[in-house]
């Protein structure tokens, strides 16, 4: 059994420390933790000295135990990210159903589930393909472009925009607001600092949202904003801040995560030419490429819970009120589930935890994300089978969102 008391640098390691995350999740550290100290205590978050320490859960099995036991590990008590009160104060984080515990969580989520089943989502394939083809058409004639900003962003923004009833001309504004809010800690995305996001962007999100909500109150449609506005939980409608945050949750989740996975997956296909050749040879492997991209590059490196009582996990004493971080970036490379886990292999078939580990908060958007990713891979590779890197990709600096902020590419002459 692994020792529960690491010594030396591992004992003192702070998993969340800006420097470690410059090139994405610290996979070497996670590997050591999985093997020597799978449930690990970090004393503090240097960038947020007022925050308490936290437990890092790094193995898939332990994460599944936490995720499935909402009575012991609450989403509501302290928020769902490592830093409780960052861009959004905790009261607002609790107004999203991702930040609620049952029964309210279940009732609110149920309102959306019908529209997100694989069968209902499959009805959108044609329109998602049309959006993707339209975005790629606009790049015709260019030799260089950025897969993040020129392809992924406009596609995912329009797809979630159409679900939410956002007019297309506002897509770029919403994309900017989501990027600065979720990437608030990255000085390249947000040079003015977190304070500016709180003072400038959050009020803009509220103002824009309130306008849309007022319109839907007057004129209901069949979009998701209307579902929120007219939702009744135990005979009561949602409060204004719950509507705004519900809208934010769906737009943020839809905007960011699919974009992240597509870009990291494309980078891996470019860098692993054997895997790209396999896929080009046998296009039916595209679902394998989607799942492998989700596994290796989970769009959210972590989600967090807070212990509601004293308990034990992997032999470690978890005290009531402790923060417990589920590191999907680690569990998706857990050697007990994935052989040679750092190898990008589109023929794998094991389950991963990119969408969560099976609990109440399992991702609502799995079918939509999988469909968007499949269409994006299919259309990009059909048009640009020999696409190459044209510069250094750069990662967003964040221990939460795991994504590239730039991926410069070139169409090689062979294309
Ligand atoms: C590659 C794409 C995506 C990934 C990797 C992803 C990942 C996740 C994860 C890990 C969670 C669980 C959080 C937890 O355990 O606390 C989650 C929840 C959620 N996701 Fe996704 N997601 C993706 C795409 C989407 C899309 C397209 C939508 C559509 C709107 C969406 C909507 C949501 C919502 C609403 C929740 C909260 C569910 C709940 O609290 O019950 N996601 N997602």
Report on the architecture of this protein:
- The protein starts with 7 loop residues before the first helix and ends with a strand.
- The protein has helices spanning 8-12, 27-36, 60-68, 90-93, 104-113, 118-122, 125-137, 147-164, 171-182, 194-218, 224-229, 240-271, 273-281, 286-296, 328-331, 366-383, and strands spanning 39-42, 54-57, 73-74, 144-146, 232-233, 236-237, 302-307, 311-313, 316-318, 323-327, 387-389, 394-395, 404-406, 408-411.
- The chain has one domain: Cytochrome P450 (Cytochrome p450, Orthogonal Bundle).
- The strands form five sheets. It has a five-stranded mixed beta sheet. Strands 4-14-11 form a three-stranded antiparallel beta sheet.
- A hairpin with a 2-residue loop joins strand 5 (232-233) and strand 6 (236-237).
- Helix content is 46%, strand content 11%.
- It is of the alpha+beta class and 415 residues long.
- Residues 67, 80, 97-98, 109, 249-250, 253-254, 257-258, 261, 294, 298-300, 303, 354-356, 361, 363-365, 368-369 line the site of protoporphyrin IX containing FE (HEM).
- The site of protoporphyrin IX containing FE has 26 residues, from helix 12 and helix 16.
């Amino acid at each position: 059994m692994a020792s529960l008391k690491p010594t030396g640098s591992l004992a003192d390691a702070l998993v969340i420390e800006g420097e470690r995350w410059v090139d994405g999740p610290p996979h070497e550290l996670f590997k050591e933790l999985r093997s020597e100290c799978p449930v690990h205590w970090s004393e503090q978050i240097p960038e947020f000295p007022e925050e308490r320490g936290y437990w890092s859960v790094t193995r898939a099995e332990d994460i599944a135990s936490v995720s499935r036991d909402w009575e012991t590990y609450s989403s509501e008590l302290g928020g769902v990210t490592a830093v409780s009160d960052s861009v959004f104060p905790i009261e607002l984080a609790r107004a999203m159903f991702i930040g609620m515990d049952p029964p309210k969580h279940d009732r609110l989520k149920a309102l959306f589930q019908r529209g997100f089943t694989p069968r209902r989502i499959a009805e959108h394939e044609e329109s998602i393909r049309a959006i993707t083809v339209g975005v790629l058409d606009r790049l015709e004639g260019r030799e260089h472009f950025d897969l993040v900003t020129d392809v992924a962003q406009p596609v995912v923004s329009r797809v979630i925009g159409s679900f939410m009833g956002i007019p297309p001309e506002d897509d770029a504004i919403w994309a900017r607001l989501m990027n600065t809010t979720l990437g608030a800690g990255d000085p390249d995305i947000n040079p003015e600092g977190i304070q500016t996001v709180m003072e400038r962007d959050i009020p803009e999100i509220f103002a824009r949202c309130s306008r849309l909500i007022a319109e839907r109150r007057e004129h209901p449609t069949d979009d998701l904003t209307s579902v929120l506005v007219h939702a009744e939980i135990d005979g009561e409608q949602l409060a204004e801040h719950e509507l705004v945050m519900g809208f934010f949750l769906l737009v943020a989740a839809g905007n960011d995560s699919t974009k992240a996975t597509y870009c990291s997956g494309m980078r891996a296909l470019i860098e692993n030419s054997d895997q790209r050749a396999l896929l080009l040879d046998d296009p039916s492997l595209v679902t394998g490429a989607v799942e492998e991209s989700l596994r290796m590059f989970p769009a959210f490196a972590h989600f967090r819970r807070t212990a509601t009582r004293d308990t034990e996990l992997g032999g470690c004493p978890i005290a009531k009120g402790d923060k417990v971080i589920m590191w999907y970036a680690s569990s998706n490379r857990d050697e007990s589930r994935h052989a040679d886990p750092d190898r990008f292999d589109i023929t794998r078939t094991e389950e991963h935890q990119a969408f969560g580990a099976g609990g109440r908060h399992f991702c609502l958007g799995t079918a939509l994300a999988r469909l968007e990713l499949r269409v994006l891979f299919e259309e990009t590779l059909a048009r640009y089978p020999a696409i190459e890197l044209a510069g250094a990709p750069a990662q967003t600096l964040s221990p939460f969102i795991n994504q590239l902020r730039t991926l410069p590419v070139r169409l090689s002459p062979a294309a």
